[in-house]
Every structure is written in C-alpha cells, then in structure tokens.
C-alpha cells in the first residue's frame, strides 16, 4: 500500500509540471498588453509602463518568467497582483469561500445522485426510472448559466426561499442555492452512473444468492448491491471536486460570490498572469490529490482490490 502510494505520487509530479507549463504558456500568449488595464482608462506614460513591465518581469522570455514562477511556488511566494497585493493574500481571502461552495455541492450531488440512482436502478423500467432518465437528460442539455438564472428567479425571487445574491455573507444558508445549482449537472451524471451500476449488479449471482439465503432487502441493497456499484461513482466524485471549483466561475458570477471564480475571471480580463496561474495551479494540485485519494479508496469499497 505504501509503495503504491509513493509510486502514484511520483506519477503526479510530471503531470503537475506539464499542466503548469501549459497553463503558463496559454496565459503568456494572451493577446494585448497586461499593463493597459492598470491605467484606469488612461494611457500610461512610457516610463511608467516600462517600470511596471520590469517589476512584473514582463520583458523576460517565457522560460525565464516560468522559472521565476516555479521558484516562487516552492517558497510559497506567488508574486503580486497588478494592484500590488500579494497573490497569496488574494487566495487566502477567496479560496475558503469557493472550497465551502464546492464541498457543499459535492455533498449535495453525492447524496441526491446516489439515493435517486439506487431507487431508479432497483425499479428499472418503471415510471420512476423513466422519469429520472428524462429529467437528467434535460438537466444535462441545459447550460449551467440558464439553470442558475432560472433557480435564482424561481426560488429566490418568486418563492423567496433563498437570497438572490450572496455578497459578503457566505454562510451555509446563503450558499445552499448556489451549491445546488453548481451540483445540478453532476447530480444528473451521478444518478445515471448509480442507476446503471445498481441495475447491473442487482442481477448478479451473489445478489441472488444473498436473497435466497433470506437476507433482508436493506442489507442486500447496502452491502451486496450498493457497495459493488460505487466504484464508478467514487471515481466521478473524485474528479468532480476540481471541476466544481473550476466551474464556480459561472455560479459565483450569477450569485455575486467573491470566490476564486470571479477572481480568475477578472484576472483573465486584464491579463494578470500571476493571479490566474497561481489559482489554477492550486486547482491542479487539488485535482491530483483528489484522484490519488480516490485510487486509495478503491480498496476500502471493493475488498477484491488489493495494492501490491
């Protein structure tokens, strides 16, 4: 187990460097002059423009800038934003909100997706199963920003069950509606994965044997069906954590949440490479760690899996 974990960690190292290199290159190639956004609508003098370019190493080559960036990562110095504020401070202010939003969305999609998927899988071919499949296809087909504005209007404005915008109050109650919107598409995928896995496992020999031995239906479902159906679901959930944090750009914009989504969006608009690359680098690390945890969880879910 320890050797497998060490080997998986070693495999993540080239993935990390490759992802950050590609990311930095794409930000580096963004059109326009990053210093143009610092003038507040006014053109900067050549002397001030040159000073800014020297301060942020914009005159250096791509590989020189990337090397400076890498050295900063390993010393926890992510540089400064164009406003002069350390990027680390920006991340410390915005990341907790987005992490809370993503974790809430992950819990919502895991609970609703698995419960609805299990019921649909056990009643395969019935009216509930057919309704769930059609509804999930509709949710997947509608863009997330349409779902967000629709939920905001119906639940927030018409019914008054949730605040329309979050603003600075990032309590669990205020983030509940944005988290549900963020998780909505993933719920559709999870329930379909769970439904298909449960329907397949429910007809397996070991399930029929357990039923023939007189085991109760709840024990057959939880131990013999659900446990053997969770591997694709857990895989999706592990990969979805990073996707939820990245997908928060749209949700945070709709509900006016000051998280990393809005920060990255604003930084891309003005070409603020240090902030964009630093935040996305942390997202890459979260994604890689989540996938490592998922791999290690397989042995707990399915006792047939052993790491040599």
TrEMBL record:
Keywords: Cell membrane, Membrane, Transmembrane, Transmembrane helix, Transport. This is Oligopeptide transport system permease protein. The chain crosses the membrane at residues 9-28, 101-120, 132-155, 175-191, 233-255, 275-301. Pfam families: BPD_transp_1, BPD_transp_1_N. The keyword Aminoacyl-tRNA synthetase does not apply. It is found in: Cell membrane. Belongs to the binding-protein-dependent transport system permease family. It comes from Williamsia serinedens.
